[in-house]
Write a structure and sequence with these properties.
Radius of gyration: 17 Å
Largest sheet: 6 strands, mixed, barrel
Strand content: 15-25%
Order of helices and strands: HEEEEHEEEHHEEHEHEE
Structural class: alpha+beta
Number of strands: 12
Strand order of the largest sheet: 4-10-7-9-8-11
Helix content: 10-25%
Shape: globular
Distance between the termini: 25 Å
Length: 296
């Protein structure tokens, strides 16, 4: 589809009530005030940069090695273990989804990290019916990639309920709670609201016998600074109480890869943990790797 097709497919919206993300994404700061009024200077980082990854050996274990990637480029090697979060309800979201056109957090046309996520991604991550972007069932035949469009970013994306850019508490606390905040590639961005410590980080996900990988590209569902759940070591339950207490949203590609029972339900449960980029094995999630940073 063309960009014009995508634009025509979207419901009308006014600039004053511009939705930013569905199911409760990072729209509001910790005090409930919108951050849209802050300096809107051009903060793009050279546009979208995609990396077609070379084959990487399967090095999956409790200890991951940071080799200067996984978010920003560069940085020294750091060994670190990340805990599993088990039995977590996961819902499904997709770029271009309009969950509630009347809500501040009712659309995936935007994300908390990208004011034009749909444009950066390349269009509706599904199929346009009438004026709406709908999800679609994915299959292993084409690596769970979308069947009606060609993505420019990794279709294996997800969110976690910690917004380290637009949420006041999330931004304030990120240097204290994010495990990799002290790594050289992140430490140099302390205080930089144009740089996210979470965007592009890799996550390993399991459901039954299936294992898949994806990158963080948004914040939610429902809450935005749930550091105890996202970064804690005690397998805490998500603070979010909406959507059956969901602690993560995954893309249609991950929905298919993990074998979810429903295309857009609230009953599938997964286990997940952060992993370093060097521990991510080759697979369809490596065909396109998103490296773009915050774009407002």
């Amino acid at each position: 589809m063309t960009r014009a097709d995508v634009t025509r497919a979207l419901p009308p919206r006014s600039p004053e009530t511009r939705p930013r993300a569905s199911r409760g994404r990072g729209v509001r700061d910790g005090g409930g005030a919108r951050r849209d009024g802050r300096d809107r200077r051009d903060r793009r980082t050279g546009g979208l940069r995609l990396v077609t990854a070379l084959g990487l050996g399967t090095v999956v274990g409790l200890t991951a090695v940071l080799a200067g990637c996984g978010g920003p480029n560069g940085g020294g090697a750091v060994s670190r273990s990340y805990p599993w979060h088990t039995g977590i309800v996961s819902t499904t979201f997709w770029v271009g989804e309009v969950f509630d056109p009347d809500a501040d957090d009712g659309s995936q046309v935007y994300s908390t990290y990208d004011d034009d996520w749909q444009g950066s991604y390349g269009g509706c991550d599904g199929v346009v019916h009438g004026r709406l972007c709908r999800t679609e069932r994915r299959t292993a035949a084409n690596g769970w990639f979308p069947r009606h469009m060609t993505p420019r970013e990794n279709p294996f994306y997800l969110d976690v309920p910690y917004d380290d850019v637009n949420d006041r508490i999330g931004l304030r606390d990120r240097d204290r709670v994010v495990p990799w905040a002290g790594d050289p590639a992140y430490r140099r961005h302390r205080g930089d609201e144009d740089f996210s410590y979470l965007k592009n980080r890799w996550v390993q996900l399991r459901k039954g016998t299936r294992t898949c990988y994806g990158q963080v590209q948004d914040a939610g569902p429902g809450t935005y600074h749930d550091s105890r759940y996202v970064f804690g070591t005690g397998n805490s339950r998500p603070a979010n109480k909406r959507y059956n207490g969901a602690g993560m949203d995954v893309s249609p590609a991950l929905n298919g890869c993990l074998g979810f029972a429903e295309l857009d339900g609230e009953d599938d449960r997964i286990s997940w943990r952060f992993v370093e980029a060097g521990a991510v094995p080759d697979g369809p999630w490596r065909r396109i790797v998103t490296t773009s940073q915050v774009s407002h």
